[in-house]
Design goal:
Blueprint lengths: L4 H8 L7 E2 L8 H8 L10 E6 L4 E7 L3 H18 L4 H17 L1 H12 L3 H26 L2 E3 L7 E9 L2 E5 L7 H12 L3 E5 L6 H13 L6 E3 L4 H11 L2 E5 L2 H14 L2 E5 L4 E5 L5 H13 L9 E7 L3 H13 L3 E2 L14 H16 L3 E4 L15 E4 L6 H4 L6 E7 L2 H9 L6 E5 L3 H8 L6 E4 L4 H5 L12 E2 L6 H4 L2 E9 L12 H17 L5
Parallel strand pairs: 1-13, 6-7, 6-9, 7-8, 9-10, 11-12, 11-17, 12-16, 15-16, 17-18
Antiparallel strand pairs: 2-3, 4-5, 5-20, 10-19, 14-15
The structure holds nicotinamide-adenine-dinucleotide.
The site of nicotinamide-adenine-dinucleotide has 22 residues, from helix 9 and helix 10.
Length: 540
Amino acid sequence: MSMTPHEVSSSLRPVPTPSTSRPASHKVSGEQLDRLIGRIFTEGSRHTAPVMAPYTNSAIREVPLCSADDVQEAVRRARIAHKEWAKRSFAERARVFLRFHDMVLARQDEVLDLIQMENGKARKHAFEEVADTAITSRYYAHHAEQHLSPQRRMGALPGLTTTWEHHHPLGVVGIISPWNYPLTLAMADAIPALMAGCAVVIKPDQQTPFSCLWAARLLDEAGLPPNLLMVVTGRGRDLGSPLIQAVDYINFTGSTPTGRIIARQAGERLIGCSLELGGKNPMIVLDDADVEKASEGAIRACFSNTGQLCISIERVYVHSSIFDRFLSRFGERTRALKLGASFDYEVDIGSMSSQDQLEKTEEHVRDAVSKGATVVAGGRARPDIGPLFYEPTILTNVPKEAAVFREETFGPLASVYRFESIEEAVTLANDTRYGLNASVWTGDVKFGMELGTRLESGTVNVNEGYAAAWASVDSPMGGFKDSGLGRRHGAQGILKYTEAQTVAAQHLMPLAAPQGVSERRYSEVMSGALKILKRIPGVR
Ligand code: NAD
């Protein structure tokens, strides 16, 4: 007789029902939502589509489906605004973003409500978006100039060539952002683009436009010139191509299949693109790890944002000597998590964001259990709390044939595996087509950092799940292998919005045979000079 995942888990051990919370309500008024909708760029009345609240599956508001012409006109206006903005000093641009930083923190309750309303996450996970937006604003306000101001470079011949590297803003940057971090993943790319002197046109996910619109309005108040940040709403498949056709660079965060479509279209136009895509991120827990801290860390790493996080952990590899202790503690802590649809901080885990994500999670659990996996915690939907709730779930004994073994779930689902040696752990962690994020838990931080360099992953966190590397915004963030192309954060996260230019002046003699000197003689003298240059340390 086949059993449902929950029956399996119940037959192994009693699974207490995670506690729930009574909904606290938000404070967003209808007028506020209408003002935000007014920030969308359209040139006429358009068809609309509802934005649904995951907590209740009811419509928040109807939002316009912009047309391809709207996108074209938004980019045209943004291009004009960019010309003036590009002439402003870094200090002038920075003032806008430092004001924005303060306003985001001061008015966080407004956007926390909006994020929760349209995405369904718990408030503490919504706060991560507020903090991240402030951190990114502060960082690029203070560091854009350092990354982009002209740099003297080594010339072709010392003393004879003066060389400078310049960076010019590209023009208009397009951003296609997803629903899982509707504030962060729009702003993390927009802030450096604007600080670089570009204009930006954002197409937020149709499911979650309000957080992005709130940030756009706040930037208006912070002093961003009109038309410099345009927001168009609609379906990706309708607006993606017109946007890519019109802009000078495209940023995309979302699934790997859609990323490939974007890259093909950007390739056709020979414009740059940056793609942050899927992940099947591993965590390695070494035998010297603090089991208590590692299991607590695994909770955050696997279940933050209901697991709908590109850098969240889905595979946990634990050394066999501590496997049982870890699994027992991880399971116990997971079962104690509080699920709820509440606009305050008392809830640990919120709702999933869409029926598709819920069904994928259910399917991965069902499939794994039918092939022999064991449910350690969770394993069932919770329609009693809300239509899209699913319990944070831990599986073990997952066979290779199960879809969850390799495929990204993007839900609150973690599989725990055992390893015997570090070599085996590294091989298992790297055995994936993805390479976005990884985590290592150990008592020896230095060893953990070295081990991190052997993992095929754009970010690695030691004794943390994802936040240490992500929030280190001075350092690049992005994916190896099928997890993406390009980087956000740090120097790379702003240089990509510029056209690099080298301006070099030649003095005294040309880089060719001077008049009256034969080509043979010139080549002999040059060869001799190059041999000498190789020995001069400053010229290497
Ligand atoms: P998706 O890639 O289809 O959508 C992400 C964004 O791309 C949305 O704004 C969407 O409107 C837009 N889009 C869709 N098709 C497009 C097209 N042809 N051209 C241009 N833009 C297009 O992802 P999804 O359906 O929302 O989620 C499916 C899976 O994607 C998830 O299960 C997860 O694996 C992954 N995902 C990853 C992230 C991330 O942070 N890396 C975010 C969201 C989803």
